Amino acid sequence: MAQTNRIEKVAIVGATGRIGKHFAEELLKTGHHTVTALIRPDTKTDNLPNGIGTASVDYDDPESGSLISALQGQDFLIITLSVMAPPDLHSKIVQAAVKAGVPYIMPNIYGHDITNKALAAEESYVARAVQQREEIEKLGASYIVLVCGFWYEWSLALGEPWFGFDIKNRTVTFFDEGTTKVNISTWQQCGRAVAALLSLPVSGGPEEPKVEDWKDKMLCISSFRISQRDMLDSLNRVLGTTDGEWTITKQPTAERRREGLEEFQRGQMTGFAKAMYARIFYPSGDGDYESSRDLANGVLGLPREELDEATKRAVEMVESGWNPFG
After folding, report:
1. Are 105 and 94 in contact (CB under 8 A)?
2. Contact (CB, 8 A) for 39 and 57
3. Cα–chain-centroid distance for residue 308?
4. Range of weakest confidence among 6-15, 122-131, 139-148, 221-230
């Protein structure tokens, strides 16, 4: 850790990715950090923001020492990985970070309350997140988990298996009555939150916000606490449509989750998203962490966002033909 009581050197795994690039961009905007992207030798760097450094590493052979070497001297490591990443890659990165002496790790856990026992018991993603957190603890490093809910634009633009919307064809499936509110965040807000956190002093007095306040804890933020009904209202404002121009159906969340799991077991990959999103929208309120936990938005000075602006970005993604899966 830097002797200035500040986090100065930040390494990012996945800085060219969907959420990683927002972390990198917002950290660089502060002017307080030296940011290094850990990349494979064949990674294209065109998408990296100006001002970021790079370190070439061999993730396939962590014993080669390139990963440990790249992490030495870093104050904070942010891990972002694709869902298609090898299942043991996260552990390899964490072990290398601990060997390199990195004091803080933000694991590849960007979603909901991982201390929610019901979610951990029923959702494989949350259960895996708990295991990742426990590994960091056992190895002697500290973690900070960013709890941000689902990514708004991503989830709204991807299609029916996610938030239930097919914007192009003007259809929506309401989960139950479509009125259950959950916490969600934009990519930009996630980036701003991490940049604000890492711009705080590492330690300090009890009245002063500091990084240590979230040591081995969750950092809970949110852009919006909304329902599908709120999303449709926003889409109507952005598109100039009315409910009458949408085909609206309803499906019980428990039925939808079961259906999604069955589809996934048959090899239909979107079934995983369908089941996971349905579970978060259960009327039990498990996706509404704001009602049970303090948000860090105020302490971090995060701006209040406009829902319609975020919805407009999602609509533009759909209209451009955006498809992250190729």
Report:
1. yes
2. yes
3. 21
4. 122-131
305 to 152, 181, 192, 207, 239: CA distances (angstroms): 12, 17, 12, 27, 19
φ/ψ of 216, rounded to 5, equals: 60, 35
For range 314-319, the mean pLDDT = 97
Give the pTM. 0.94
Which residues have CB under 8 Å from 205's CB, separation 6+?
none
Instruction: Work out the burial of residue 121: count CB atoms within 10 Å of its CB; fewer than 13 is exposed, 13-18 middle, 19 or more buried.
Output: exposed
What span, in angstroms and rounded, lies between the C-alpha atoms of 318 and 147? 26
Cα distance between residue 322 and residue 307, in whole Å: 20
Least confident segment among 116-120, 152-156, 178-182, 189-193: 116-120
Q: What does the H/E/C string look like for the chain?
A: CCCCCECCEEEEECCCCCCHHHHHHHHHHHCCCEEEEEECCCCCCCCCCCCCEEEECCCCCHHHCHHHHHHCCCCEEEECCCCCCCCCHHHHHHHHHHHHCCCEEECCCEECCCCCHHHHHHCHHHHHHHHHHHHHHHHCCEEEEEECCEEHHHHHHHCHHHHCEECCCCEEEEECCCCCCEEEECHHHHHHHHHHHHCCECCCCCCCCCHHHHCCEEEECCCEEECHHHHHHHHHHHHCCCHHHCEEEEECHHHHHHHHHHHHHCCCCHHHHHHHHHHHCCCCCCCCHHHCCCCCHHHHCCCCCCHHHHHHHHHHHHHCCCCCCC
